[in-house]
Amino acid sequence: MMRRIVVALMTAFLALGLVAGCSSEAGDVSCGTSQCTVTLNRGVDADVSVLGVTVKLVSVSNGTVTVEVGGNQVQIPVSDGEGTSAGNLNIRVSEVTDEKVTLVVTQQN
What are the distances in angstroms from CA 61 to CA 12, 26, 78, 98? Predict the structure, then answer.
């Protein structure tokens, strides 16, 4: 009986860890079990850590969002629903406003 309780508690803690998020002046990250939503604030030096990699907003221009992922610049078309590969990540633009850029980040297998 005690073993079942311990297993249930460990499962609950792991599930909470998978949906964890963090927030700062630069933006915030919210992760579920299969993807992370990354919001980068415009007008500040916006970078966040997601899935062990630093993602930094470089620019937004002519329908393209440029981000730096792990030290490499990647251009992501705003209208492309499939996204762009960056290392073992796939990044697509979800929303662009005057205040923020929202990205959806998933790990590729």
Answer: 43, 19, 10, 12
pLDDT in tens, 64-82: 999 999 999 999 999 877 7
Query: pTM of this prediction?
Result: 0.75
> Amino acid identity, residue 93?
V
Is residue 81 within 8 Å of 10, Cβ to Cβ? no
Instruction: Give the model's confidence band at 6: pLDDT under 50 very low, under 70 low, under 90 confident, else very high.
Output: very low
Q: Which amino acid is at 28?
A: D
Closest C-alpha among 66, 41, 38, 67 to residue 50: 38
Question: In angstroms, rounded to a whole number, what is the distance separating the alpha carbons of residues 57 and 41?
Answer: 8
CA dist., res. 68 & res. 55, Å (int): 6
State which H helix or E strand residue 40 sits in.
strand 36-41
